[in-house]
Every structure is written in C-alpha cells, then in structure tokens.
What we know:
Blueprint: H1 3-22, E1 32-36, E2 41-45, H2 56-65, H3 79-91, E3 97-101, E4 120-125, H4 130-140, E5 144-149, E6 154-159, E7 164-168, E8 178-181, H5 197-205
Parallel strand pairs: 1-3, 5-7
Antiparallel strand pairs: 1-2, 3-4, 4-6, 5-6, 7-8
Amino acid sequence: MAPLLSIALALIQNVADLGRVFVAPSHEPPAITFYFQNRHEETSLALLDEHDAVKPDALKELSHFVRCWRTQREKPMHPRLVEIVAALSRHFGDARIEVVSGYRARPYGAPHSKHFLGRAMDIHLNGIPAKVAARWVWANFRKVGVGFYPKQDFMHVDVRDQDVRWVDTSRHGESAHARYFGRPVGEELPEGAPKLAYDTAAAAAQPAPTAVAMAELPWRN
C-alpha cells in the first residue's frame, strides 16, 4: 500500500476513535411499540428514562393509547405495571406489545377488575407464545396477578398486594373457566431478575423505624 494512502487510512481511523471518545453513548432504553387490537392503532413510545423509571409524559401518552375502547374514557396506568410490561418487551428482544385490553370503564369487566383501576393489561407479545411470556412475568416479579388464556392466546398482567396466577380456558365471549394458583411458600426470585425503579423508589421512601422510648415499654415500672 502506498505510504500516502496508509497515512490517510490512519487519520480516518483516528477520527473514528476520537468520535467514540467524545460522543457519549445513549443509555436511554429503546422505544416500545404498542398495537391496540380493538382499534387497529399502533404507536411507539420511549417509556423509560436512563434509570428505567417511567417518564411522566410517556405515561400520559400510553394511558391515552390504552384507553377503554368501548367508552373512550381513560385513566392513568400504574407506573409499576408499565415498568413490568416494558421489562417483558425488553427481555424478548424489544417485542411489540399487542394490547387486547388496557383500561376498562365500568361496567365492562369483573366486579373487582384491576382494569378499572389502570392496574392491568391483557397483552400478547408479537412472536412470543402467551404461555412463555406469562411464565416469565410470574417467575421474575412479585405482587402481581398473571393470567394465561390459551384459547385466546393472550396473557393478563396486573399489580396487586398478593401474588396470584390463573389459567382460563374460555374462548372469546364465553364465561370464565379459570383455575387459580398461589405462589409456593419460599419461592425465590431467579438470579438476574429485573429490578423495578418503582420498587426501589418506594423502598427508599419508607420511613426508618423509630426506637421506642424505654419509658413507654409496658414492662417498665
């Protein structure tokens, strides 16, 4: 190779190296694509910030997108639920989330449905069996409700105080045929389970326990 050409190539390589040094990489998670089956609409949202917490503006957009398709009413979706759905998409290669049902306005749902509260979504991941997605959420998170609907090929996920999962073999339009299961005592999270920014912030906000004054103890004279 001619010396002049060698020098030119070296300069180009140096410029590229400098670019990598001075241009900071973006740590913002990629956008997630949502497709709402009942309205045949699609949107892509960068839901999370660099700390994997839900961005308020994105949460507002998502809440509007998953509004009740029957009434067009909407309610803010719970940030913890959104973080779980985002983690699910990320785990499966940023898979598109196909929304069957997001927020539901009364009376369209079971009497105590988490959909009424913006705490539940019925979804399917593009290219991923619903059973696989439901199993992953159940294994990696706590304080969740996870339902699998094999004959309709979607999963339900919600946030709640106590864990519960179920399998519902009903077809579309049929009454529920669900079997419910609790979580085995002592079942631990797998190593590497996603940590939710919502949970971290909630734990940090808990007040530190205060010492009880000795004079207030009942056995003191």
